[in-house]
Amino acid sequence: MKFFYQIFIYLYPLAARLLGYQNEKARLWVKGRENIFERLRQAFEGNTATVVWVHCSSLGEFEQGKPVIEQLKIKYPASKILVTFFSPSGYEVRKHDSIADWVFYLPMDSAANAKQFFDIVKPKLILFVKYEFWYYYLQQAKNRQIPLLLVSGIFRAGQPFFKWYGSFNRGMLLCFNHFFVQDEASASLLKSIGIEKNVTISGDTRFDRVLAIAQQFQPIPAIEAFIGNSQKVIVAGSTWLEDDKVLHHYIVAHPEIKFIIAPHDIQQSRIDECVALYGSPLNVIGQWSTVNGQPSNVLLINTMGMLSKLYHYATIAFIGGGFGEDGIHNALEAAVYGKPVLFGPEYSKYIEAIGLVDNGAAFSVENALELEKVFDDLFNNPTFYQQAATAAKDFVAQKAGATERIVEFVSGES
Fold first, then answer.
1. What ranges in 279-401 are assigned the alpha helix state H?
2. Which residues pair with 150 in a beta bridge?
3. Residue 33 to residues 42, 104, 105, 113, 382: CA-CA distances in angstroms?
4. Do residue 199 and residue 228 come from a single domain?
5. Cα separations (Å) of 51 from 66, 192, 402, 413?
6. How far apart are the first and last CA of the chain?
7. 334: domain range?
8. Does residue 341 contact residue 361 with C-beta atoms inside 8 Å?
């Protein structure tokens, strides 16, 4: 397996360069790593503060890690935080986030890169969020005896760690000092391969994150101007074309309902897809287009960073991704506001989505007809709606507390 891993880390940058000629994300991935060690040296030159390194695959993992970072900064104000990302969708959105002292792309894994990175950064504590296991970086942490924690970890039986051929992958897990996992199933899987004493079922820090976002909510005047006096608002977040196709009929059939569509990808090609499907929606905050001379009932969001606030305005929320192979995006951002949640059939990898469904707060639909029925039932049955809304809010509130457990552990180890 190590042989195949080495092939992967060699070929991935080459593939990114080739794809970069046509794909913006691949181009950003490559460009963001140009002269990266020189930039790291300049950034860390003369630093004498303790460095806490937090690695996140992408934006979602950053949102999970952020509550822990915030609490560590409060508890250890003299320390400095380095956040690294593998994906452009995390780095490009959060590269100027004030919560971190430095934000960088993670150089591609290799023995030389990992050694150079550690020599420059000199971290005293390392947190990897949820997943992504980079062999050479983990080995450096272990060899240098730097505490390494997995935060909000989630494991599934199908992963190589738990297969007969997974000895290489299991070796990476042995580099961690402690695992904070989301659920009992993950802890049981780790136990099955002999990892038990250094495992804590802490829950998911995203619950703490969405609660903090909801508590800090600030109104968005342009959104309120679009909604006006409408009593029915559907916010569809992190959508893909497959989601749009399922939503489209309901949108056309209900001009009295306001729809706010926030695509997961806001590259121009994706925005063009939405415009082609919906007609000419309101696609710039504060300026709306018209369809056949009539104001559109659809607002298309073509900017990043607003979605967690947009759900505040929803009567019902629709979470995108469930009609694609990868599954749904973050349903907790909507549930925290006490909003009933709908999504497509692909959600089995996400324990928070399963929990929302089991508690009557969320509903999975297979097609446009099922979506229409659930929307209508929620709009037309106040008791049914209120039960789902209350269940959503209660579910999030009851799952909070993972951040405190992790920070307490760090304090005990310090």
1. 307-310, 332-335, 351-358, 368-380, 382-398
2. 128, 179
3. 15, 9, 6, 12, 53
4. no
5. 16, 34, 22, 16
6. 36
7. 220-397
8. yes
Is 369 within the bounds of a domain? yes
**Whether the predicted pLDDT of 277 surpasses 90:** no
Q: Do 408 and 388 belong together in one domain?
A: no
State the CATH number of the domain containing residue 15. 3.40.50.11720
Tell me the CATH number at 232: 3.40.50.2000
Number of C-beta neighbours around residue 93 at 10 A: 15
Q: CA-CA distance, 49 to 368, in Å (whole number)?
A: 55
Percent of the chain clearing pLDDT 90 (strictly above): 79
Residue 196 forms part of a structural domain: yes
If asked whether residues 224 and 368 sit together in one domain, one would say: yes
Q: Are 9 and 85 in contact (CB under 8 A)?
A: no
- Whether 377 and 405 share a structural domain: no
How distant, in Å, are the alpha carbons of 127, 221, 287, 289, 299 from that of 226?
A: 41, 9, 9, 11, 8
**Could you give the CA distance from residue 346 to residue 402 in angstroms, rounded to a whole number?**
26
Cα distance between residue 407 and residue 68, in whole Å: 7
Mean pLDDT of 24-41: 95
Considering the domain architecture, whether residues 370 and 256 belong to the same structural domain is answered as yes
Q: Give yes or no: residues 117 and 199 share one domain.
A: yes
Total domains present in the chain: 2
Give the pLDDT score at 289. Answer: 53
Residues 6+ apart with CB under 8 A from 140: 114, 115, 117, 118
Answer yes or no: is 212 within a domain: no
Instruction: Specify the pTM.
Output: 0.84
Q: Clarify whether residues 172 and 278 are in a common domain.
A: no
Tokens of residue 243, six digits: 């989601």
- With residue 38 as reference, give the H or E element that holds it: helix 36-44
Confidence of residue 295 (pLDDT cuts 50, 70, 90): low
Q: Which two tokens stand for residue 345?
A: 């059939």
Does 391 lie in the same domain as 281? yes
Q: Mean per-residue pLDDT for 354-381?
A: 97
Q: Using one digit for the tens of pLDDT, what is the confidence trace for 155-205?
A: 999 999 999 999 999 999 999 999 999 999 999 999 999 999 999 999 999
| Closest CA relative to residue 347, chosen from 368, 331, 361 | 331
